[in-house]
Specification:
Helix content is 4%, strand content 41%. The chain is mainly beta.
């Protein structure tokens, strides 16, 4: 969405990437795109209707008549437009992948086998059957990526198998496949500006925006585990009073508050959910309010259902920790996405050969 009713010309390019998401500079675009050109214009757009915040909704589907990937692997979409000074700038970057589905993968998840971490961590075991893939040294030519609830900060990459037998790779009792268990995501929704919504204490209108105040949150690290059926950090855009939420859901300034019960060590607190991955770190960082002793964060979100949690990043760290605020409970149901890439000797790109999804506690 572009927060104006004025049309802006958006172009996009599609580029092939390596397994780790970096640009693959070994291939020409004609080798991985069956397309007339590597750049195209987004022509599917529509103005918002009956919203306090005016916006234009742009849509893009791939493959389309002009851009069609022809190799498996990761791809990066870069969308650009001209700013007010007439200079081209990047509006957003997104990723997708094309899968060959030629590798079989089985995943099991259990609590950590070490007794000291059994109550707070989860460990994965994997079995990958690569069949007849042309690999000389499967241990070095196969790349593994594991993500918990689609988070990017704590994703694991490049973990070698513990054993290889023919085309079968095993990761068993692997210390590198251990995750903090975390806790069930918190939930809130803003699907109706004229009624109370789940997890929201009030919605008010102060021209030109609606404001939603989320119920204050408390730390859960010291509390017992309580199951809640969430969607593993996802969100869904929805206006319960509209026919088309793509163009009739409004934007609302949403106010989050965390009421800490103890002093935290030096570091930063971030709001996290799938909806935050396209935002800058400064937009999702909570600020401390000395007068109330709380942490707050204000984000403009489109109406819908949202899963979220609070992550603590110690000074000097890069990975968000659940242990300080949400707690780590071994019973937590997490979604684990495992992707396998192969890079046979002599090839110039990472083949995406298989993936699997597993849920802890199921």
């Amino acid at each position: 969405d572009d927060l104006t009713h004025e049309y802006r010309r958006y172009t996009y390019t599609v580029e092939q990437c390596n397994a780790d998401g970096t640009l693959n500079e070994e291939l020409f675009d004609t080798e991985y795109l069956a397309s007339p050109a590597s750049e195209d214009v987004i022509e599917d757009y529509e103005n918002s209707l009956n919203t306090s915040v005016l916006y234009t909704h742009y849509a893009l589907s791939i493959p389309n008549a002009n851009v069609r990937p022809k190799l498996s692997g990761n791809y990066r979409i870069t969308v650009k437009t001209e700013n007010d000074e007439g200079e081209e700038e990047t509006a957003l970057v997104a990723y997708f992948a094309v899968n060959e589905s030629c590798a079989g993968l089985s995943i099991t998840c259990d609590t950590d086998t070490e007794i000291d971490r059994n109550a707070t961590h989860q460990q994965l075991s994997l079995r990958a059957d690569l069949g007849s893939l042309p690999l000389r040294d499967a241990s070095s030519e196969v790349k593994l990526i594991v993500a918990q609830n689609r988070r990017t900060d704590n994703a694991l990459f490049g973990i070698r198998p513990t054993s290889v037998s023919g085309g079968v790779l095993l990761w068993e009792h692997c210390r590198d496949l251990i995750f903090n268990a975390g806790n069930e995501y918190r939930r809130m929704e803003t699907v109706n500006v004229n009624a109370l919504n789940m997890g929201v204490s009030r919605i008010e209108y102060f021209e030109p925006y609606y404001h939603a105040t989320v119920n204050p949150d408390q730390p859960r690290a010291a509390t017992q585990y309580l199951y809640d059926q969430t969607q593993f950090g996802r969100f869904t855009i929805r206006n319960a009073e509209a026919n088309d939420s793509h163009t009739q859901a409004d934007y609302i300034i949403t106010h989050f508050t965390l009421e800490p019960d103890d002093m935290l060590p030096k570091g930063k607190i971030y709001l996290q959910g799938e909806f935050t991955q396209g935002l800058s770190p400064s937009a999702t960082q909570l600020r401390y309010e000395p007068e109330s002793g709380t942490y707050t964060c204000d984000i403009m979100l489109k109406q819908g259902h949202y899963n979220y949690q609070y992550l603590f990043v110690p000074d000097g760290g890069k990975v968000g920790l659940t242990s300080y605020i949400e707690g780590d409970k071994y019973q937590t149901i997490n979604e684990y996405l495992v992707k396998i890439y192969s890079h046979p000797m002599g090839e110039r790109y990472d083949h995406f050969v298989g993936y699997g999804v597993a849920y802890s506690g199921k």
